[in-house]
C-alpha cells in the first residue's frame, strides 16, 4: 500500500528525551563518565518518526507547550515530515520531558514529566471529533497508534468512544508503570496490544516465563491480539483462536535500549501496512529493533 494512501495517527507523548549513558555498571549513588544527550522523543513521536523514515507519514495528536522547547519540537516534527498542525498548544504549560539513565545492562532509572499531556485530557482528541480527522457520522477509519502516557480517564473514554469504532487501534503501554492504563481495551474488537514481558505481567497480574505465555495470558484477559517481546529472547504474536507466531532475535551486542520498543512497533506496523505475513512482519520488526539496539541503524 502506498504511503500516501495509508492514514496513520499517533496519539500520545511528544517531548524531550534527556538520556545519560555509561558503559559502567551502575549502583545507587554511582558517579561514572558517560554521555548525556537531549533528543526529541516520546512514544508517539518515536513511532511516528520511524514510520516516516520507512515512508509512511503520520499525523501527531498530543499537547506541546508554547515555550521555546515546545516550538523546537514542533519545528522538528515538521522537519522530518510529520503532520503537526492538529497538536494542542496550551498557553502556560511547560513542554514535557523524559529523563533516563542507562548503564551496560540497560535502563537503570527513568522519570517522565508528562504533565501537559495528562492535563490536556481529551482536548488533544478534538480533531477526531470535529470533522477535521473524523466525526461521529464518519469516524476515522485508518490506523491509530495509542500510547499509555495518556491519562486513565482519556484512555477509558477512547476504549468506548464511537469516534474510535472504525479504526485499527494499536496500543503501546509506554512503560511498565503505566501498563494497567490499557486494561479498558480488553475486549475491544479492533485493538492490538504491543507489550514487553513485564508490561504483560502487570496488565495480567501474573508472572510469565516466556513471551508466548504472556500472549496467552493477555488473550485470556480479553485481548483480541497481543504481541509480546522478551528482551533478547523469543518474541510472540498471538490472536484469539489462532496458533501463535514465534521468532527468536539474533544475538547482538547491546549499545542502547531507550527507543528499541518503539522501533520494533514501527517496523511491525510498516510490515502489516504492506500486508506481509505474520511471520515475515515479526521477523522484520525484530531485526529492525536488533539493529537499533546494536547501533547499526541510521537513527
Quick structural overview:
Helices cover 29% and strands 23% of the residues. By secondary structure, it is α/β, with parallel strands linked by helices.
Rounded radius of gyration (Å): 18 Å
Largest sheet: 8 strands, mixed
Q: Give the DSSP E fraction (strand runs of 2 or more residues).
A: 15-25%
The fourth-level CATH homologous superfamily of the domain at 8-13 and 44-61 and 81-86 and 124-293 is: Ribokinase
Question: Would you tell me the structural class of the helices and strands?
Answer: alpha/beta
What coarse outline follows from CA principal-axis ratios?
Answer: globular
Identify the CATH architecture of the domain at 8-13 and 44-61 and 81-86 and 124-293: 3-Layer(aba) Sandwich
Helical content (DSSP H or I, runs of 4+): 25-40%
**Number of E strands:** 12
Would you spell out the secondary-structure blueprint of this structure?
Elements lengths: L7 E4 L3 E7 L13 E7 L1 H11 L5 E3 L6 H12 L17 E7 L2 E8 L1 H6 L22 E5 L4 H9 L7 E5 L18 E6 H8 L6 H10 L4 E6 L2 E7 L5 E3 L12 H14 L4 H16 L6
Parallel strand pairs: 1-4, 1-7, 2-5, 7-8, 8-9, 9-10
Antiparallel strand pairs: 2-3, 5-6, 10-11, 11-12
Helix pairs in contact: 1-7, 5-6, 7-8
Amino acid at each position: 500500500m502506498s504511503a500516501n494512501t495509508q492514514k496513520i495517527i499517533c496519539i500520545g507523548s511528544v517531548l524531550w528525551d534527556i538520556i545519560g549513558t555509561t558503559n559502567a555498571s551502575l549502583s545507587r549513588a554511582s558517579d561514572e563518565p558517560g554521555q548525556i544527550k537531549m533528543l526529541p522523543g516520546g512514544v508517539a513521536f518515536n513511532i511516528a518518526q520511524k514510520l516516516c523514515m520507512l515512508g509512511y507519514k503520520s499525523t501527531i495528536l498530543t499537547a506541546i507547550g508554547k515555550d521555546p522547547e515546545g516550538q523546537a519540537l514542533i519545528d522538528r516534527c515538521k522537519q522530518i515530515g510529520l503532520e503537526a498542525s492538529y497538536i494542542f498548544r496550551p498557553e502556560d504549560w511547560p513542554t514535557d520531558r523524559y529523563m533516563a539513565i542507562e548503564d551496560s545492562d540497560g535502563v537503570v532509572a527513568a522519570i517522565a514529566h508528562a504533565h501537559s499531556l495528562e492535563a490536556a485530557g481529551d482536548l488533544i482528541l478534538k480533531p477526531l471529533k470535529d470533522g477535521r480527522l473524523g466525526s461521529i457520522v464518519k469516524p476515522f477509519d485508518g490506523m491509530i497508534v495509542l500510547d499509555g502516557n495518556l491519562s486513565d480517564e482519556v484512555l477509558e473514554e477512547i476504549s468506548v468512544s464511537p469516534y474510535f469504532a472504525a479504526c485499527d487501534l494499536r496500543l503501546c503501554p509506554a512503560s511498565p508503570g503505566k501498563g494497567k492504563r490499557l486494561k479498558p481495551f480488553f475486549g475491544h474488537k479492533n485493538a492490538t496490544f504491543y507489550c514487553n514481558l513485564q508490561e504483560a505481567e502487570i496488565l495480567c497480574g501474573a508472572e510469565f516465563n516466556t513471551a508466548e505465555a504472556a500472549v496467552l495470558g493477555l488473550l485470556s484477559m480479553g485481548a483480541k491480539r497481543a504481541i509480546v517481546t522478551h528482551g533478547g529472547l523469543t518474541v510472540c504474536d498471538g490472536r484469539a483462536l489462532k496458533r501463535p507466531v514465534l521468532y527468536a532475535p539474533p544475538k547482538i551486542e547491546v549499545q542502547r535500549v531507550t527507543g528499541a520498543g518503539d522501533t520494533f512497533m514501527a517496523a511491525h506496523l510498516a510490515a502489516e501496512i504492506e500486508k506481509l505475513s505474520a511471520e515475515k512482519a515479526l521477523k522484520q520488526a525484530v531485526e529492525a529493533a536488533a539493529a537499533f539496539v546494536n547501533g547499526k541503524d541510521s537513527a
